[in-house]
Amino acid sequence: AWDRTLEVNVTAPLILAQAIGPRIPAGGSIVNIASTDAYVGSFQGIAYSASKAALLSVTKSLANVLGPRGVRVNAVTPGWVDSGILTESYEASTLTPLGRNGSPEDIAKVVAFLLSSDAAFITGASIVADGGYTGVDYFMKKEDQSSS
To answer: Could you give the CA distance from residue 72 to residue 28 in angstroms, rounded to a whole number?
Structure first.
């Protein structure tokens, strides 16, 4: 599982970017899809978390390589998204300050922004779209809720 996960989540985006990067005109953009698991780790999906963290590093390196040609490379880092992949029911209100999971449309809008000329000076960045999930200290949240 480790090798396959890294092949899909790290090697494939790198090979694709290396193949198409020289053909992308100045002002063009590549957007990789990472995951908040890159920041918070995982108890069961170590390969997945490691691969998404590696993809963020690949994104920065590709930004360095392709930037001089005027090509931007960024990543979107989604949190919990109702995409049909989740097999368990998650109480988003307990996980995110916004109280809901993201939608595919939420993530698509961030990708569209990064591909647009409005993001012309952004490269090597990762935009977190997680409803605030990675900004919560869950231990402190639990203490705060129990003292209320």
So the answer is: 6
Which residue, 107, 2, 104, is CA-closest to 48? Answer: 2
pLDDT at 87: 58
The CATH number of domain 2-143, selected from 3.40.50.720, 3.40.50.1220, 1.20.1250.20, 3.40.50.2300? 3.40.50.720
Beta strands (DSSP E) in 59-147 are 72-78, 126-129
pLDDT in tens, 22-71: 999 999 999 999 999 999 888 889 999 999 999 999 999 999 999 999 99
Q: Which residues are catalytically annotated?
A: 48
